[in-house]
Amino acid sequence: MKKYRNVLIAIVVLFLLAGTGCARQQPADDTSASTEGPQLELTLEELASYDGKDGNPAYIAVDGVIYDVSGSSKWTDGEHNGYSAGQDLTETIKGKSPHGVSVLSRMPVVGKIVE
After folding, report:
1. Which of 4, 43, 55, 108 lies at a CB distance of 3.0 to 4.6 Å from 68, suitable for a disulfide?
2. Could you read off the pLDDT of 38-68 as tens digits, one per residue?
3. Among 33, 25, 8, residue whose Cα is nearest residue 112
4. pLDDT digits (tens, 9 = 90+) for 54-110
5. Given 3-state DSSP classes, what are the helix, strand and coil percentages for the chain, each rounded to the nearest 5?
6. Reduced to 3 states, what is the DSSP secondary structure of residue 67?
7. Residue 92 and residue 78: Cα distance in Å, rounded?
């Protein structure tokens, strides 16, 4: 009886391990960062309070999408190369930044700009 129990346990373990490999995977999306979680809808005036100062997160907007740059070492205290978080930086990033929008794919998307 003990032999059958061990075989049954082995079958269950194999079944569980095989099932984890069959989990449905989300397709990779190289065009934008993660959009998991609730999405904020902020006006430009509301975005200004997310300046990375006094414990506030550092958010920037580009093309109407709001990115959280708080975790980036390049955005210390909400500042990066003379620019401040809490603003729409579309023209700056697209027109002046040497990296353009490419680095934004590594930043979490937290919402969108609304009127």
Report:
1. 108
2. 799 999 999 999 999 999 999 999 999 999 9
3. 33
4. 999 999 999 999 999 999 999 999 999 999 999 999 999 999 988 889 999 999 999
5. 35, 20, 45
6. strand
7. 16
